[in-house]
Design a protein that fits this description.
The protein contains 13 helices and eight strands. The protein is an alpha/beta fold and 329 residues long. The strands form two sheets. The chain has a five-stranded parallel beta sheet. The chain has a three-stranded parallel beta sheet with strand order 1-2-3. It binds zinc ion (2 copies).
Length: 329
């Protein structure tokens, strides 16, 4: 390749450097697994009835190197599970034993979390049992309880003892209610890292958010509860997974560029995707990856969001794992 005659040598060098810095085509668009390492911090076994084989192929097709499996709590009928309607994280997801078994079968590709319906009297022993067996996170906390209840304090205490983060599904009037008070927990447990997820977490990037709207489409005025929690508390993280994470970027891309830039040390890629193929356009995880790749302000920020932040948070030491094997069809 020779420099264009009208370009100075300096222009040419600058252009070449830009070429080198430009991120690769998103896997969703190129149809191939990306070479960069990716941690997906949010997945489930038996998600909406998906088989392990379909799930493994899905993660490989997305180009994910390591996946964190988040279990449901025990199936019980009580107010905190909406009398059983929210069992299996309201999506037939597998529990502690299910995620541990898959992670043990494929230790290079999966690690697992520990969970329990947090207002059960046995919650502490059940969660601790799986932390001792190697769980790296307490999640997914998705129960009909206040987000600053005595039960989340039990969970946070365990997280502190075992040095693992807690992932919470915030959904107005439904799960982890009272996000406007969550700063109290962040203040009370400064050594515990909390990861915010779902509709009410992402809706509240907007200072003018209407709490009743789960998927707002209006332009964002920065400075909402979520924006402030991330700015004010280094132990607060954001999980970009699910329709809510994707919507938070697509509803106002200009805002998203700034948001990904200013919180680049505290944002994590997750898919929470129940698709069975693992490629666009139907696959939500592939769409989230494409959006993060398009909107991250520069390659280093992208790398933090796709890999570095999760590796640090989950204490995955050592070198980045190699890219996943090609999809098993
Ligand atoms: Zn969720
Ligand atoms: Zn989930």
């Amino acid at each position: 390749m020779t420099p264009h005659p009208q370009l100075s040598r300096r222009d040419f060098l600058a252009a070449s450097a830009l070429l080198i810095l430009t991120p690769k085509l998103p896997a969703a668009e190129s149809g191939t697994a990306a070479a960069e390492p990716i941690i997906d911090i949010h997945q489930h076994t038996n998600y909406s009835g998906r088989t392990d084989e379909q799930f493994i192929a899905h993660q490989r097709a997305m180009g994910v190197s390591k996946t964190i499996l988040l279990p449901a709590g025990s199936p019980v009928e009580r107010p905190s599970t909406h009398l059983g309607k929210s069992n299996g994280l309201a999506a037939q997801c597998g529990g502690n034993q299910s995620v541990m078994e898959l992670a043990r079968q494929y230790p290079k590709e999966f690690v697992f979390g520990a969970n329990e319906v947090s207002d059960l009297p046995t919650a502490r022993t059940e969660i601790e049992k799986y932390l001792k067996l190697g769980a790296v996170i307490i999640a997914e906390q998705k129960f009909s309880l206040d987000c600053d209840s005595e039960f989340i304090e039990i969970v946070a205490g365990l997280a502190q003892d075992y040095g693992v983060p807690v992932l919470m599904h915030f959904q107005h009037d439904t799960y982890n209610m009272g996000i406007e008070r969550f700063h109290k927990i962040l203040k009370k447990f400064p050594k515990v890292n909390f990861i915010g997820h779902a509709q009410t977490w992402w809706g509240n990037i907007d200072r003018n958010h209407d709490q009743k709207v789960l998927y707002p489409v209006t332009p964002v005025t920065a400075g909402g509860i979520t924006d402030r929690l991330l700015s004010d508390y280094p132990n607060m993280y954001g999980d970009l997974s699910a329709g809510s994470g994707l919507n938070s970027m697509l509803r106002d891309e200009e805002h998203a560029r700034g948001f990904l830039g200013r919180h680049q040390n505290q944002l994590l890629f997750g898919s929470d995707c129940n698709d069975r193929i693992g490629r666009g356009p139907g696959c939500q995880g592939a769409q989230i990856l494409a959006a993060v790749r398009r909107l991250a302000p520069y390659p280093k920020a992208l790398r933090k969001i796709l890999y570095d932040n999760a590796a640090r948070l989950l204490k995955m030491t050592g070198k980045a794992p190699p890219p996943p094997p090609p999809s098993a069809q």
